[in-house]
Write a structure and sequence with these properties.
Layout: E1 21-22, E2 27-30, E3 40-46, H1 50-63, E4 67-73, H2 76-85, E5 92-95, H3 98-106, E6 110-111, E7 126-127, E8 131-133, E9 137-144, H4 157-166, E10 175-178, H5 184-196, H6 200-209, E11 213-215, H7 218-227, E12 232-237, H8 238-247, E13 251-254, E14 260-263, E15 266-270, H9 276-287, H10 289-298, H11 314-321, E16 325-326, H12 340-356
Parallel strand pairs: 3-4, 3-5, 10-11, 10-12, 14-16
Antiparallel strand pairs: 1-2, 2-4, 5-15, 6-15, 7-8, 8-15, 9-12, 9-13, 9-14
Length: 371
């Protein structure tokens, strides 16, 4: 898929429509209109960049101006750890690290929503009325146009593998992907892809063979691609990459045509939420046609509502790519990758395969994760 065809899939996030007051670098505040004494507080903690969530918060605030919103953006693991330490301080939890969100809900931390709230929501997009999937975000590749000086653009994993093997010297240090040790999202992708593809470990070895740079976030990879230091980014979060690619004619976004992982943002209301009524109001908006239309039209997160069609929706992507799209099922299977021994085994194999053809060394210590 070329850059211009993405216009039909995702739209650029629009500028803020209401004044937003920053609280440090990773938080924002939408104050309630009118008398502060009559405000309805809402505290959201998420692993979702501010640029992508602002249109959604703006639209919700326009509909409910008496709600006083505090939003904090954290990395996936810091979000998880902060919640475990202070579960009573937050009304809504949002993250794309699906195993970690499921683990919290499975441990009894999530408050169930009523049947009426979920009446129009697909059963595959929620678990026990507690954990709600509300976005549809493919994991993609991004290439710089200078790659054309070396080879044709790869359209799938097989072509990428062949490219890495055939042009090892030319691509040395100019390819990047997630570090599954440092990144919760990266680990989740590695876990899922190793199940899906029999050639996954060959691809990891080939990435090591070109001394691929392992990074913590999609933003880091996009910075390297925009600057021209990198020629290929593998397994980037498509929702974060799409606006950057759309604005930069030197970059091309590829949804692999053989298979593409899909992550879904998961949200829940904690059982100890300080403002459960306001939290439920926000969750209802997330799943409403109005809220989902905002996701489709004003963000690149991908609307999941089954009634919505056209650009920026899961329906559009499924029509284009069909069975090539794979999203982990919401269920106990997500917990497998969080088992300590299984996690250690997967990371050990990743390190071994990556170093098979690599001149570099990967740090094996488990550290914090990032979105």
């Amino acid at each position: 898929m070329n850059r211009h065809s993405l216009v039909g899939l995702v739209l650029l996030a629009l500028p803020c429509l209401l004044p937003i007051h920053a609280i440090g670098g990773q938080a924002l505040h939408l104050p309630a209109d009118g008398d502060p004494e009559q405000a309805r507080p809402l505290i959201i903690h998420a692993a979702l960049d501010l640029a992508h969530v602002r249109p959604l918060l703006n639209a919700f605030h326009r509909r409910h101006p008496r709600v006083d919103i505090v939003y904090r953006n954290l990395t996936t693991l810091s979000l998880h750890e902060r919640f475990l330490g202070r579960p009573e301080e937050v009304d809504v939890m949002i993250s794309s690290a699906m195993p970690w969100q499921f683990a919290l809900a499975n441990a009894g931390h999530a408050r169930p929503l009523d049947d009426a709230t979920l009446a129009d929501w697909p059963t595959r997009a929620h678990w026990r009325r507690e954990l709600i999937a509300f976005t549809f975000e493919p994991i993609i590749m991004v290439v710089h146009r200078d790659l054309a000086q070396i080879s044709a653009t790869p359209n799938n994993h097989g072509e990428l593998l062949a490219l890495l093997l055939e042009h090892r010297q030319e691509l040395k240090g100019r390819v990047a992907s997630y570090d599954p040790v440092q990144s919760g999202a990266g680990y989740a992708y590695a876990m899922e892809e190793s199940r899906r593809s029999p050639r996954y470990w060959d691809l990891i070895a080939a990435l090591g063979g070109v001394d691929a740079r392992l990074m913590d976030t999609t933003a880091e990879m996009l910075d390297g691609l925009e600057e021209g230091h990198l020629l290929i980014g593998y397994n980037l979060l498509g929702s974060y990459a799409a606006p950057i690619v759309e604005a930069n004619p030197e970059l091309t976004l590829i949804i692999p045509d053989d298979y593409a992982l899909v992550t879904r943002r998961l949200a829940f209301v904690p059982r100890r939420a300080p403002h459960p009524d306001t939290a439920t109001l926000f969750m209802e908006y997330l799943m409403s046609r109005q809220g989902q239309r905002t996701l489709a039209e004003e963000t690149s997160l991908g609307a999941l509502h089954p009634a919505l069609k056209g650009p920026g929706t899961a329906t559009e992507l499924r029509e284009r790519f069909g069975d090539a799209l794979h999203s982990p099922r919401l269920g106990p299977g997500l917990l497998v990758g969080l088992d300590r021994l299984k996690r250690q085994a997967l990371l050990a194999r990743f390190r071994r395969e990556f170093q098979r053809e690599s001149s570099g060394v990967m740090d094996a210590e488990t550290a914090t994760t990032a979105d």
